[in-house]
Design a protein that fits this description.
The longest helix is centred in the C-terminal third of the chain and has 15 residues. The N and C termini lie far apart (about 55 Å). The protein is of the alpha+beta class. Helix 3 packs antiparallel against helix 4 and helix 4 packs across helix 5. Helices cover about 40% and strands about 25% of the residues.
Length: about 140
């Protein structure tokens, strides 16, 4: 018998640092075992410490769940590589940092599985657009 999906929830958590207090407000209403989710998420992300790794959680009627990890958000990766705390308050008028074309390619390669393209060049354009909207310049190597 196939399990009936109750809902799908996506949450952004720091890798290896999930705990019931952090996820309670998002997942407690679903009725799943919070500690069980935290243990599974932390085990799956222990090699990605320091990154924000979104988890897509499929919750079934019987309160069991399935966790699928996504790639870190583009904005998080751009801030990390540019070495800035946050994006520009006024993108287009304000520049908060910059990354190299090689760093842009690296971010695009990380994000490729979650983007709606299979071309690395198109992925780089998508990430470059996000960078522009955050006030991060892309400089030639």
């Amino acid at each position: 018998m196939e399990k009936v999906i109750k809902q799908i929830v996506t949450i952004n958590l720091e890798a290896g640092k999930a705990n019931p207090a952090k996820i309670g407000k998002d997942l407690a209403p679903t009725g799943i075992n919070l500690l069980g989710f935290c243990n599974q998420y932390n085990e799956m992300t222990k090699h990605q410490l320091g990154l924000v790794v979104p988890a897509k959680i499929t919750i079934y009627e019987d309160r069991s769940f399935n966790v699928k990890l996504k790639t870190p958000p583009a904005a998080f990766l751009l801030k990390k590589y540019a070495g800035v705390e946050k994006g520009a308050a006024q993108p287009g008028k304000e520049v908060v940092g910059s990354i190299t074309t090689q760093q842009l390619r690296t971010i695009a390669e990380i994000k490729l599985p979650d983007l709606n393209t299979t071309s690395i060049d198109r992925a780089m354009k998508i990430i470059a657009g996000t960078a522009r909207n955050m006030g991060i310049n892309i400089e030639d190597d």
